[in-house]
């Protein structure tokens, strides 16, 4: 479930607390959470409705000035069941603090290397984490397209791999492409030592 930048601004300001989506199957559930660039959303409710169930107040809470504007937006080539999703911001994305943490002790570094080794071991295309981190570290803004082409991996699969690195706090998204986080840069500096100690890289 993705949000446009103006919607995220409204959510962060507390003006937007509803979203409407046409789905064949919901991608969020009541009681679940959703990570976004402005923080983690707590999903209060996911309700299947009809267009007539949308009120003027609903439209305002979804960021639209009129009910008609919301309905026009929903009619733009979207199929499936209409859902009303209620949510609120519950806190910051925990990955943000993780990305900024560049104070890794020996145990933290060893654990991180083990996690990267597990990603390599479970990859059907063979080890990849070192190459991807090196490519991102060479230049801020390197895109998934570029990395996929360099490594001969399909773009959708490469994007999934980069998301795995992001989950570990090692990379972060830019407006276009990626860069190493503070945590990722710290780990890169430790790689020669780590290699001799753990034989991972």
What is the structure about, briefly put?
The chain is an alpha+beta fold and 201 residues long. It contains 9 helices and 6 strands, in the order H-E-E-E-H-H-E-H-H-H-H-H-E-E-H.
Task: Give the topology, please.
Layout: H1 5-13, E1 18-23, E2 33-36, E3 39-49, H2 56-61, H3 67-74, E4 81-91, H4 94-100, H5 106-121, H6 129-138, H7 144-151, H8 155-167, E5 171-173, E6 178-180, H9 182-198
Antiparallel strand pairs: 1-4, 2-3, 3-4, 5-6
Helix pairs in contact: 7-8
Structure description:
This protein is of the alpha+beta class and 201 residues long. The protein has 2 domains: 88 residues, Archaeosine Trna-guanine Transglycosylase, Chain: A, domain 4 (Roll); 104 residues, Orthogonal Bundle (Arc Repressor Mutant, subunit A), CATH 1.10.10.10. Helix content is 47%, strand content 19%. The chain contains 9 helices and 6 strands. It has a 4-stranded antiparallel β-sheet. A two-stranded antiparallel sheet has the order 5-6. Strand 5 and strand 6 form a beta hairpin.
What fraction of residues sit in β-strands? Answer: 15-25%
Percent helix, as a range, is 40-55%
Radius of gyration: 21 Å
Structural class: alpha+beta
Number of helices: 9
Looking at CATH, the homologous superfamily of the largest domain is Winged helix-like DNA-binding domain superfamily/Winged helix DNA-binding domain
**CATH architectural designation of the largest domain:** Orthogonal Bundle
Unreliable parts: 193-201
Shape call: elongated
Strand order of the largest sheet: 1-4-3-2
Termini gap: 36 Å
Strand count, sense and closure of the main sheet? Answer: 4 strands, antiparallel
Regarding CATH, which class of the largest domain? Mainly Alpha
- Indicate how many domains the architecture comprises: 2
Average of the residue pLDDT scores: 87
Q: Report the strand count.
A: 6
What's the CATH topology name of the largest domain? Arc Repressor Mutant, subunit A
N-to-C series of helices and strands? HEEEHHEHHHHHEEH
